[in-house]
Amino acid sequence: MPLFAPLRALRARPDRAVEVAALPYDVMSRAEAIAMAAGRPHAFLHVSRPDIDLPEGADPDGPEALARAAEALAGLQAQGLLVRDGAPAFHAYRLSGTVAGQPVGQTGIVGLADVAAYEAGRIARHERTRPAKQAGRAAHIEALGAQTGPAFLLHPPAPAIRDVLAPVTAAPPETDLTGPGGIRHELWPITDPVAIDALVAAFEALPRLYIADGHHRSAAAAMVHARLGTAASAGFLAVAFPADEVTLLPYHRLVRAPEGLTAEALVAAAGGPFAVEAADGPVTPAAPGRFGLYCAGRWWRLAVRPGAATPDGEDPADQLDVAVLQRLLLGPVLGITDPRTDPRIDFVGGVRPAADLERAVDHDGWTAAITLHPTTVTDLVGVADAGGIMPPKSTWFEPKLLDGLVSHVLD
Q: Dihedral, CA atoms, 223, 226, 231, 236, nearest 10 degrees?
């Protein structure tokens, strides 16, 4: 299989796609998913988050949930809301709109990424997966006989890919809808054999692809392929975007202090490794090495003191702000030594307003919120190329791809 190949997709019918398309299953709580699916019987959340149709507390990866998901997928096909392409094709996928007050626009290619290349590291990862979450996604794929959510990949800017896309996207899109957050999602099928061959060759010429978002989806697809070993399971559903078009937002932290450590004591302790300054309102860090801290009803600016953040080794992941915060504050002051598993830390994507962070601290039992400057694509690529692993929740890409527009059937 080539590095990136066309697929015979199962797609949302263009004139009904707005009824089907939904945000990815893993960017929302169960309560938020229920609210998003309310009054939308055809929303793809009934496939991707079947626990919303079960009593509270039901296992989202259990047999009953998986049966519900398979039933919902079959129902969308039976009603003609999902239709299968007659032959393998690529699809251009453009997202555009405004995110965090800034205009965004990115155009990628929907296709199948090679599982073997993923296993060999040519499709590079930068994040560890959680075994339970990976197994749950693998069970979902096997129960449905389909991969129903694409991974988000990056590739180096490639004129050969842009040359193919330019005439395709100059025409009106076949699918055109406005999704959550006012983001416009457009799809163009690429069925011309010459264009398909040109794209396959252009991707094959790239040194690597990088997983930006969707590590668990990718790992689950590889797990399923190890079991099935079929031609259809040899690729995983993905959308590949040029790295110079994507938008990265910060990934903020909510923390609970250990017993006996007051909010005032936390601010005082931060004054060791950081220069601390009171702020008049929410703090949006303007550069690396700067953070915002909200606790006890007020905001503070933190700036790393010279020399305080020096890591022990040369791992590029150790240079990231998320690693600096862990090394200087979360571990030694708050006792949060493993942010992947400690219940006293939570993570909030930068698309959420500061008011959400304040509300969590003021009303939901968190001691403090910490705002960060965003990690960059250069950071991500540097860590991946070095074979490193980023700290948990280092990147938040926005806008999010929608589930349900394109799925990959394993037959």
A: 20
* Distance in angstroms (rounded) separating the CA atoms of residues 311 and 331: 14
The single-letter DSSP state of residue 38 is T
Q: Counting every residue, how long is the chain?
A: 411
What's the pTM value of the predicted model, to 2 decimals?
0.92
195: in domain = yes
β-strand 123-124 against 209-213: which pairing, if any? parallel
| pLDDT tens, position by position, 327-351 | 999 999 999 999 988 999 999 999 9
Residue 307 has pLDDT above 90, yes or no: no
Domain count, the chain: 2
131-144 and 63-78 are packed helices; what angle lies between their axes, rounded to 10 degrees? 40
Q: Could you read off the pLDDT of 20-33 as tens digits, one per residue?
A: 999 999 888 899 99
Closest C-alpha among 359, 390, 362 to residue 376? 390
279: domain CATH number?
A: 3.30.1760
Shortest CA distance to 184 belongs to which of 247, 273, 96, 250? Answer: 96
Domain that holds residue 278: 251-373
Rounded to whole angstroms, the Cα distance separating 146 from 223 reads 14
Q: How confident is the model at residue 312 (pLDDT cuts 50, 70, 90)?
A: low
DSSP SS3 for 297: coil
Q: Does position 128 have pLDDT exceeding 90, yes or no?
A: no
| C-alpha closest to that of 331 among 320, 317, 345, 319 | 345
- C-beta atoms surrounding 349 within 10 Å: 17
The answer to whether the beta carbons of residues 235 and 229 sit under 8 Å apart is: no
Task: Give the residue among 345, 344, 306, 300 at the shortest CA–CA distance from 322.
Answer: 345
The two beta strands, 4-5 and 10-12, are unpaired
The residue written with tokens 């990231």 in the block is 320
Count of C-beta atoms within a 10 Å radius of residue 380:
26
Residue 66 included in any domain: yes
With 0-12 CB in 10 A as exposed, 13-18 as middle and 19+ as buried, what is 392? middle
pLDDT, residue 313, reads 66
